[in-house]
Amino acid sequence: MAEDNQDRANPRRPAFFTPLSMDSQGGPESLDPARVTEVAHETAAVIVKTGRATHDPELTTKLVALVDDLGLSTIAELWADRPARTLPGALWRLYALREWVCRDAVGASADYTAGIRFADVPHVVAGVAEPPGPAELRALTDAILTGVFDGDLAIALERASGFCRVVAAGRAHLADDSDAHDPLWGSAQTRRAASLLTTADDLEACARLWRKGDLL
Fold it and tell me: Which of 28, 49, 120, 138 has the fewest CB atoms nearer than 10 Å to its CB?
């Protein structure tokens, strides 16, 4: 019990291994696709388990800002190729959403605001503060990831899904408005809106899987 208490008091940051770093550690055989897949799922499970077990606000803050520390490319190497309806696939989408909002909070706010009246229920599910300006959306994506490590993970996934649906509605609406004067931009926005709707569906499915204990 004393050892357990000590581990909780001094949580260790999970180790990350990208395909490149695995190659340097163990030679070309380390790039075996099965091993890369295994590492992706292991790291996702360790991060979530560690964050949810320690109840340490400082660690939670570090895990929420993981991309700030490691870089989006490292996270992508770990998880971006995993199926959307898996734990690493879900984490990748949550971190990618946060990074997008951090980099373009003004644009995210414009898309979100444009979509609210077309997606009022997802807006409620997302739970963003009013009015949904840049700061509020940054706070929302941080709150979603905080919920992964210190809250109901399924609800966090559903909030992210709601966020995606509102942004998708906003992009589709803005695309319709732009068709007459900038059809290429409008077409690109329509494709992005469709992609976000797929992400929303995947995140909702992940929430159901988590509740059943099947999100691996």
Answer: 28
Read off the DSSP letter of residue 118.
G
CA distance 80 to 175: 27
Q: Compute the CA torsion angle 176, 177, 182, 184 (nearest 10 deg).
A: -20
Indicate the average pLDDT of the chain. 87
CA distance 127 to 144: 10
With contact defined as beta carbons under 8 Å apart, do 98 and 141 qualify? yes
pLDDT 10s digits, 117-127:
999 999 999 99
Residue pair 89/79 in contact (Cβ under 8 Å)? The answer is yes
| Rounded-to-integer distance, Cα 19 and Cα 82, Å | 14
**Which pLDDT belongs to residue 1?**
41
How many CB atoms within 10 Å of residue 19?
16
Q: How far apart are CA 98 and CA 75, in angstroms?
A: 13
Residue whose C-alpha is closest to residue 162's, from 211, 75, 94, 66? 94
Domain residue spans in the chain? 2-212
Are residues 187 and 178 in contact, defined by beta-carbon separation less than 8 angstroms? no
Note the pTM of the prediction, 2 decimals: 0.84
